[in-house]
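Help!! Second protein's tokens look totally different from the first
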Amino acid sequence: MDFDSSLKYAVIGASKDTSKYGFKILKHLFDLGINVVPVNPSADFILDLPVVKSVDSLGSDRVLVFLVPPSVSFKIVKHAINLGFKKFWFQPGSFDDSLLVFCSEKGVDFSAGVCLLHLG
């Protein structure tokens, strides 16, 4: 899957900590003017954006961007596919081979290992 700035994104693992990639990726997308939503179960606002607690609160038309460990990504992806999500972006460190095989078998679009900070 190629980066498309016209799509809507959600950052799984968004963070208030400016030193973490969960903040840097969210800010980069926000600064590009992309429709982006932070997802974090323990925050209310990041970059003055309202935070959603889980993918259950999102429309399935969003690209889910993962900045969490592979086991967490796998759990969320399984649930998200059941909700109708079809596009996933796995940041470096957020996936393993079994997750990529699963996504391929499910026929969803994904990118793995390409950092969004280098795009746009």
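Here's the second one for comparison:
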Amino acid sequence: MQNPALLKSLFISFPLLLCVSFVFSAVEPFDEMASDFEAEVITEINPVENGVEYRYKIFYSENNKRNLINLIFDFPPGIPESEFIKYGGKADGNVKWSGGYIGGTSGFAILFRPFASPQKVEWVSQYHKLWSLDYAAKPGEKVEIELLLKGENIIPGVAKLRGKREWAQWVFDSFAGRYPPADFKSGNVSKTFTVPGPVPKPQNQTSMIDHLIATTTGAYNEGWISKADVYQGLMDKLVAAKENILKGRRNYHTARNIIGAFKHLLDAQRGKAIDEACYRMLYINADEMIKMLGR
């Protein structure tokens, strides 16, 4: 004989168990990345005695949900640590951001982060942890960093600056009964900005003109040269200069004159179709090219 009370209990509890089961099985990895933020980077390049100074202003949008916790400049093996004279930074409120070397087999980087600011881990839910730093840049604030290099083995070029904000990480545990799927990506991912910055200096005339061509093309692709006809005018001169360089030393004088014309076009379009940092970057490269052709 069936028990009506038991049947009623099963009728109520079974859908509830299904619902609870669905909630746990439907929980997905937290997809909020450390690279999920808005920022604008303004670059300044200043030639100084025996070197080049690079300054970066990072305007961290007020639309961001979390704080900015670090900035990283990556350098290839061609730039030795001995080239660096000074590096550091600060955020709004006169908060110091210190720089420190982090090494690797394929080069090294300088990590900028709030000075004396320990990393903290906080639980934001049963399944998520939040990584954060004290004194990090808040939404709407600005961070300025600077690099001063000797300039003996470096030249301005197209470089990479990475940034990272506070991030929440999914925590897989036995209670959730879930494990990272094959395509799971950690929340600890940097946002990469392409900026004018220090790169290894080419060591001969041919590699230097190739570098200048690649840098000009990179600048146009990034929008630092805003007009196609101006870009084409610059490239026509660089291609002509390379043709003369490849003919040998007897044509170096002609190549120097062509690079001089390249500089005149830079001057004419400075602040118009060519932004200031791009102008400085290409002008310094052109001067180095002329110097190499005079050897």
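Reply: Different proteins will give different token patterns, so don't panic. The chain has two domains: 39-200, 205-293.
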